[in-house]
Amino acid sequence: MPRLLEVESGRVLAPGEILVEGDRISAVGPSVPHQAGAQIIDLGDTTLLPGLIDAHVHLFLHPGAEDLQTVEESVPQRTVLAILAARDDLMAGFTAERDMGTEGAGSADTAVRDAINKGLIPGPRLRISGNAIDILGGHEDANRFNPEQHVLSNATYANSADEIVAAIRQQHKEGSDFVKIYETGPDVMQGGALRTPYQYTAAQLSAAVEEAARFGGVVAVHAMGEPGTLYAAQAGVASIDHATQLSDETMRIMKSKNIPAVPTFAIFEYFMHESAARAAREGPFLEYKIKEFKRQVAAGIPFAVGSDVGPFPHGTQARELELMVKYGMKPLAVLQADMLNGARLLGWSGQIGQLKPGFYADIVAVPGSPLEDITAVEHVSFVMKGGIIERMPQALR
Q1: What is the pLDDT of residues 63-88, one digit of tens each?
Q2: What backbone torsions phi and psi does residue 253 show, to the nearest 5 degrees?
Q3: Has this prediction a pTM greater than 0.85?
Q4: Can you tell me the distance from the alpha carbon of 367 to that of 359, in angstroms, rounded to the nearest whole number?
Q5: Is the pLDDT reported for residue 195 higher than 90?
Q6: Burial track 114-131 (b if 16+ CB lie within 10 A, e otherwise)
Q7: Quick one: 37 exposed, middle or buried, by C-beta within 10 A (0-12, 13-18, 19+)?
Q8: Which of 22, 35, 143, 219 is the S-S candidate for 179 at Cβ 3.0 to 4.6 Å?
Q9: Domain 53-345: which topology?
Q10: Which segments within 24-86 are labelled E, that is strand?
């Protein structure tokens, strides 16, 4: 019989059973009612977990030169690949995700989200941002191309508070759930420390936060370091993604406002193995990031789990949880960051992230105990989303 992890308390029920009725969990415990005619699935020596949550994905990217993908591949082609990416992520146990920008594919993620919600294609529950927002010449602009070719940015231009508000309104009209803003870049290491210019002031980010709140949305920022990370915290964003460099004051604000950092170690590790030249450039960044992460953990700031999957293969991003453990967090703390903080960040607290009555029946099974060996999350054998079995162990088919 399987075990069941109560994520909030860290308690393990052994055995653990779940009664699913429709798309919701109706009972959980060492034994639940076995109703007449109910399908009984015994997953054997496994641990049952809530569905994994990835708070930073790019469904519209795949391995290879990112800038060339966005130039050479049409939006319909990229949408087909995004559909396949969503399926791969779901089969790996990620039942909810936050798509952090289509990288030049506009609001195409609206179609992917809506098709998933209608049951037309398999995929996680999605919160989508549409195109991200960036300044002229910013982090995602086409800065390395011949300007006479007028290559489009991978994000939507906004150079003032008024333009940010206009961009947010246009994206929300096209279906976005939240706002993704690039706040820093380009990044360089100088004298053993990160240097990264900010793109928007705290006042400009505050205008974005206020506009998003008007329709019930939030703002997430790509922010590698100071002072952009401080401005983001002061503005009250929902999350600071990458968060490689955080000052003491920034961390104080993050704790007081419950703003999680989303470290995205997996993408850094992937780039380290991409080529010798890439490793030489990324090595100092990763070394610095690990040192700073340990300081952040010691400071007690909140975290969520996001991998930045897309530039590396979809469906492999459970590695992010392992890296957060490797660099200083306890397995239970990482699982709580993923499921509890992830549910809150995606706006689904009380609905996903725990195996409790009334929650969506988003359930995965992993071998062994992830509290003892977090690598178990890389070996998901069973996936249920909203009461529908998406993946079943070969022996039980």
Answers
A1: 998 888 989 999 999 999 999 999 99
A2: -65, -40
A3: yes
A4: 23
A5: yes
A6: ebbeeeeebbbbbbbbbb
A7: exposed
A8: 219
A9: TIM Barrel (3.20.20)
A10: 24-29, 46-50, 52-57
